[in-house]
Amino acid sequence: MIVAGLGCRPGVEEAAILALLRQAGQDLPPVTHLAAPAFRREVAALHQAAATLGLPLIFVEQAALERVQPLCPTRSAAALVATGLASVAEACALAAAGEGARLLRPRISGAGVTCAIGAGATAAGAAGSAA
After folding, report:
1. For 19-58, how does the pLDDT look when each residue is reduced to its tens digit (9 = 90+)?
2. How far apart are CA 104 and CA 8, in angstroms?
3. Cβ neighbours of 125 (radius 10 Å)
């Protein structure tokens, strides 16, 4: 599975998410799933982007995001202060892609959204829940 991990501000627009996903996915296999932190479950633009793309949206629980922090190459002091996580998008991609996942694209940033692409062999039922 190829997972686009997303971090975002609560008021992010769907267009910003879709634009960053297009940029992040260039020269990579097609994304099969979107993943975002469970604390952003109420962000409408995440659900809208998943529906527009016809992709499942996985919400990753805090504990799973914390477990993969040591595997995330990009760290943000601002994200750490705001969420308790130094890396949100990369952590979502790795946790949702499952055991042994690896990053295909480290975090890139857009207008109120970040994205990282991860690849793994298994779905991450334990890491989160589908929207």
Report:
1. 999 999 999 999 999 999 999 999 999 999 999 999 999 9
2. 20
3. 10
Quick one: pLDDT at residue 78? 87
Question: What confidence score (pLDDT) does residue 82 get?
Answer: 87
| Structure-block tokens of residue 67 | 């477990």
- Cα–Cα distance measured from residue 62 to residue 101, given in angstroms and rounded to the nearest whole number: 18
3-state SS assignment for residue 39: helix
pLDDT at site 129? 57
Give the C-alpha distances (Å, rounded to integers) separating 27 from 19, 23, 66, 78.
15, 9, 29, 29
Cα–Cα distances (Å) from 88 to 7, 27, 38, 52, 53, in that order, read 5, 23, 11, 23, 21
CA of residue 13 relative to chain centroid, distance? 16
Are the CB atoms for 129 and 59 separated by under 8 Å? Answer: yes
